[in-house]
């Protein structure tokens, strides 16, 4: 005879089994069309490029070597692949600058929303959410139209007599950065708002009572309290920015490539799939490091972001 | 009179915030205005006209790409929402069990990897399957879209479930409802707003995708966003503005619905 405890144990095991069956479809779809193929990328990075794209099934570390180095076609010596390093540096620099810029603009914006009255707060929040869910390509295209030589900014400046010749903004690093700040700003504002909403203004009041200046209150009280939001927002902006594809292809033209464009090139005209695979793993490693920083920074804090 | 001192005020913050809101909408406004331009320029105003909307509407490529986008987005959103609902039921309202954290991480995994990497991975993987099976249809795009839509559909459904306690389901069980009946007549009606919200999010996310689609699509499988990307790279006519305007309108309608749906529960 089974004891009551055993029966209960069996029931629990059955329930857990049901829960696995229930989650199976989602897990299998993600395994087949998202997670699993990532392992194949790792495998491909160690193969030999085929003559017309794809790969030959022969082990090679050449893909990884050419991430950083290039082989001289005449004497086979290795030197730093300066073209690649320029692109890595540009990607990192632009992603970090975009993160800082979205923080500089996003922090006051989130604070502004969080300090509105209950009712108007929803409207402001809605105004931030709309761009967040509208097509990224369309928003990038909108930036393109404003900053091009015949665009709104240049036309206005010429008509005002400030400049004679249009300023070339499009197809520069500056254009990519402006575009990224524009499209990723909501990603910074939303988590910042989530932590500011919970801000206890009695602490701010206490600060003023103790003769703190506005700047001191901001730096010593508000900023430390909303730090989890700052970290979350920075990560949310940095990750898509380092892998950005649409923004640099539309606003950077052909010359100002970022990581993603370099990867695309290897699968297109470059016909070097192993190098493309190795570059993809490199981007992923950078993203994983960023996530690790995030986990380290939020460990122990109970703040959750929706 | 001096302005009253407010502890909530920070110097310059309101100005920056208002500038942000203004700059956020200015480019979109310019884009929409020039969609109605009579001339073929996107910087000189030549009078009001709907000719670019007509041009887009009679462009077979645009019509085909739009249908394809809608087909992919609705299939992917529906499959993703069903899978996400089941997964949400399996991962909420339970004591922690072995594998629960793994499930969370796995379901959210598509959000952690840059799109370009997933795109490349699927390009490689599907290229092999295409050769092996000879099938070249929209199935690959639907599968790819379904995978990255699952975490988005999962989010609101899980949030909704976590706010529901098990009392009503227990009451149903006490009244001899079978588990299936209790689910259909009690859980599902309560969960419905979350499911609809998840479905809409997934639909918008799929509709917007450029990068993964660009890598997975076979020849002649342009969706509206990849078609537009090609056009923008070639040079711009207000036709793209017109398409964007319609697209924006659709997104805004869906987001507005979503916003009110998820507000309601508070």
Please provide a written account of the structure.
The complex is a heterodimer of chains A (306) and B (266). Chain A has a domain at 89-298: MetI-like fold. Chain A is 72% helix and 5% strand. Chain A contains 13 helices and four strands. Chain A is flat. Chain B has 266 residues and is mainly α. In chain B, α6 (139-162) packs across α8 (179-208) and α7 (167-174) packs antiparallel against α8. The longest helix of chain B is centred in the first third of the chain and has 32 residues, at 60-91. The model of chain B has no long low-confidence stretch (mean pLDDT 89). Chain B: One of its GO terms (cellular component) is plasma membrane. Chain B: Its main location: membrane.
CATH top level class name of the domain at 89-298 in chain A:
Mainly Alpha
* Assigned CATH architecture of the domain at 89-298 in chain A: Orthogonal Bundle
Which structural class is indicated by helix and strand composition of chain B?
A: mainly alpha
Query: Shape of chain A from CA axes?
Result: flat
Q: Name the CATH superfamily classification of the domain at 89-298 in chain A.
A: MetI-like
Helix content of chain B: over 70%
Strand order of the largest sheet of chain A: 1-2
- Please tell me the overall pLDDT of chain B: 89
| Count of DSSP H/I helices of chain A | 13
Oligomer: heterodimer
The CATH homologous superfamily of chain B is named: MetI-like
Order of helices and strands of chain B: HHHHHHHHHHH
Query: Beta-strand level of the residues of chain A, as a percent range?
Result: under 5%
Regions with little confidence, pLDDT below 50 for 5+ residues of chain A: 302-306
Helix content of chain A: over 70%
Gyration radius of chain B (Cα, Å) is: 23 Å
Q: How far apart are the termini of chain A?
A: 49 Å
InterPro entries (chain A): MetI-like (IPR000515), MetI-like_sf (IPR035906)
Subcellular location (chain A): Cell membrane
Domain ABC transmembrane type-1 (chain A): 88-294
Protein name (chain A): Spermidine/putrescine transport system permease protein
């Amino acid at each position: 005879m089974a004891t009551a405890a055993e029966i209960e144990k069996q029931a629990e095991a059955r329930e857990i089994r049901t829960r696995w069956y229930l989650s199976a479809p989602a897990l299998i779809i993600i395994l087949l069309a998202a997670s699993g193929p990532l392992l194949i990328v790792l495998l491909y990075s160690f193969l030999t490029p085929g003559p017309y794209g794809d790969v030959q099934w022969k082990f090679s570390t050449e893909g990884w070597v050419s991430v950083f180095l290039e082989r001289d076609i005449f004497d086979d010596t290795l030197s730093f692949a300066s073209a690649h390093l320029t692109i890595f540096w540009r990607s990192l620099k632009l992603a970090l600058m975009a993160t800082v810029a979205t923080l500089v603009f996003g922090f006051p914006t989130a604070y502004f929303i969080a300090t509105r009255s209950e009712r108007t707060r929803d409207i402001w929040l809605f105004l931030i959410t709309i761009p967040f869910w509208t097509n990224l390509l369309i928003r990038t295209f909108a930036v393109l139209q404003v900053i091009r030589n015949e665009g709104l900014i240049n036309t206005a400046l010429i008509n005002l007599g400030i400049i004679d010749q249009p300023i070339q903004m499009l197809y520069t690093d500056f254009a990519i950065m402006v575009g990224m700040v524009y499209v990723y700003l909501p990603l910074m504002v939303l988590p910042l708002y989530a932590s500011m909403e919970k801000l206890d203004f009695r602490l701010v009041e206490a600060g003023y009572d103790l003769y703190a200046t506005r700047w001191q209150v901001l730096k010593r009280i508000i900023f430390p309290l909303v730090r989890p939001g700052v970290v979350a927002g920075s990560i949310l902006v940095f990750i898509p920015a380092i892998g950005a594809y649409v923004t640099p292809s539309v606003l950077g033209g052909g010359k100002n490539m970022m990581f993603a464009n370099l990867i695309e090139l290897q699968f297109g005209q470059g016909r070097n799939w192993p190098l493309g695979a190795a570059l993809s793993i490199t981007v992923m490693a950078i993203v994983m490091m960023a996530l690790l920083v995030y986990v380290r920074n939020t460990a122990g804090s109970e703040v959750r972001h929706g | 009179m001096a302005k009253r001192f407010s502890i909530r005020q920070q110097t310059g913050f309101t100005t920056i915030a208002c500038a942000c809101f203004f700059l956020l909408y200015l480019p979109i406004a310019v884009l929409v205005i020039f969609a109605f331009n009579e001339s073929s320029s996107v910087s000189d105003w030549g009078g009001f006209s709907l000719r670019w909307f007509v041009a887009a509407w009679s462009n077979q490529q645009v019509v085909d790409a739009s249908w394809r986008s809608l087909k992919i987005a609705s299939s992917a959103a529906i499959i993703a929402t069903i899978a996400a609902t089941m997964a949400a039921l399996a991962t909420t309202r339970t004591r922690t069990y072995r594998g629960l954290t793994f499930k969370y991480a796995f379901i959210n995994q598509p959000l952690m990897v840059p799109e370009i990497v997933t795109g490349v991975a699927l390009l490689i993987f599907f290229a092999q399957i295409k050769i092996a099976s000879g099938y070249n249809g929209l199935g690959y795009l639907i599968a790819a879209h379904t995978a990255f839509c699952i975490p988005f559909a999962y989010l609101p459904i899980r949030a909704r479930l976590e706010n529901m306690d098990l009392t009503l389901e227990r009451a149903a069980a006490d009244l001899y409802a079978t588990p299936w009946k209790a689910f259909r007549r009690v859980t599902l009606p309560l969960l419905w707003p979350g499911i609809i919200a998840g479905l809409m999010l997934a639909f918008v996310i799929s509709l917007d995708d450029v990068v993964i689609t660009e890598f997975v699509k076979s020849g002649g499988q342009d969706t509206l966003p990849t078609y537009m990307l090609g056009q923008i790279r070639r040079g711009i006519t207000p036709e793209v503005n017109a398409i964007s305007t319609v697209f924006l309108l659709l997104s805004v309608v869906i987001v507005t619905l979503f916003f009110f749906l998820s507000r309601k529960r508070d």
